[in-house]
Design a protein that fits this description.
The protein is of the alpha/beta class. 40% of the residues lie in helices and 16% in strands. The chain has eleven helices and eight strands. Strands 1-2-4-3-5-6-7-8 form an eight-stranded mixed β-sheet. Helix 2 crosses helix 3, helix 5 packs across helix 6 and helix 5 crosses helix 9. It is globular, with a radius of gyration of 18 Å.
């Protein structure tokens, strides 16, 4: 399976001063004249993940805009917040860029941000895509993990003690930064066989390492806050997401159980679930997957009789 790792040249990084004074940093890649897709990075991850999609997005006529979330990378930190607060940053970004319409694609921890935007920005968001994202644990009846497969804290620890979660995250971040080689080796060991093949290709370049390490350099406080907004109360229910959502899930994903995807599909008003046998967690890096995804987005956005219908 081929991997898409073209890195754009030129000035693709930009900053926006939000209304509360915080800086929001983002990459602007793909086709500059194309239909806008906001991309939500994973955890660890940052705005550099837009480079992973740049070439295929450009070929299919999509513009890829990837913001650093609050406190991550070069975006300023915001303290106590819920997931429902996130779309306000995106609203200000799309207003500044004068985007009348857009869609949101989120990978891993970015998936819940796609749902938050589908809840709060339904008046201008056409479609959401959740690539191996978490469900809303406040509604999830299944097992709540203390530690997730990613080695990050899970929803049970978030509920038990946010203070302890902060300490655990700070420890993980400190060890990862002190021993980056060990961190990368452990990442390869944790993922599925298919994921390993993709990571071997990506680790030959610098973009994947930069993406991971820049996020980790944001510090334990920012990362813990980012995780808590996803693991705790979102401030809205899944049934309130009014935008159609495409859900993709690898059946061999060691980090995100298939049951999370099924729970999303069962509880979102308009959702379509695609389970992928053999796929793990990093399939969005694969050229073949990106090709299929962008073809599907083009078909959906250009089809006046869309299969998924928004709820009213």
């Amino acid at each position: 399976m081929g991997s898409a790792q073209t890195t754009a040249t030129g000035n693709s990084e930009h900053q926006l001063r939000l209304q509360d004074g915080r800086r929001l940093t983002y990459t602007d890649l793909g086709d500059p004249q194309g239909y806008a897709i906001l991309f939500g990075h994973g955890m660890p991850g940052c705005r550099l993940e837009g480079h992973f999609l740049h070439e295929r997005a450009r070929q299919h006529g999509f513009r890829i805009i990837t913001p650093d979330r609050s406190g991550i990378g070069l975006s300023d930190y915001r303290g106590r917040r819920l997931l429902r607060d996130y779309p306000e940053d995106i609203r200000q970004l799309v207003d500044t860029l004068e985007l009348a319409r857009f869609s949101y694609v989120g990978w891993s921890s970015g998936g819940s941000r796609a749902l938050a935007c589908g809840y709060a920005l339904a008046d201008r968001m056409d479609l959401g895509v959740c690539l191996s994202g978490y469900t809303h644990f406040g509604e999830y009846p299944g097992h709540h993990r203390l530690i997730e497969g990613t080695r990050w804290p899970g929803p049970r620890l978030a509920k038990l003690s946010p203070t302890l979660l902060n300490l655990v995250v700070r420890l993980v971040v400190r060890l990862s930064l002190r021993h980056p080689g060990l961190y990368m080796r452990e990442t390869r060991q944790l993922v599925s066989e298919q994921d390993r093949a993709l990571l071997r290709a990506f680790l030959k370049g610098e973009c994947f390492r930069r993406d991971q390490l820049e996020c980790l350099q944001s510090g334990g406080k920012a990362i813990a806050t980012d995780l808590l907004t996803e693991l705790g109360d979102w401030g809205f229910e899944l049934k309130s997401v009014k935008v159609p959502i495409l859900i993709y899930q690898g059946e061999q994903d060691p980090f995100v159980p298939v049951d999370y995807a099924r729970h999303l599909a069962d509880n979102l008003p308009a959702a379509d679930l695609t389970l992928m046998p053999g796929a793990g967690h990093v399939y969005p890096l694969a050229e073949q997957f990106q090709e299929r995804l962008f073809q599907r987005l083009n078909h959906y956005l250009n089809n006046p009789h869309r299969k998924l219908q928004t709820t009213t």
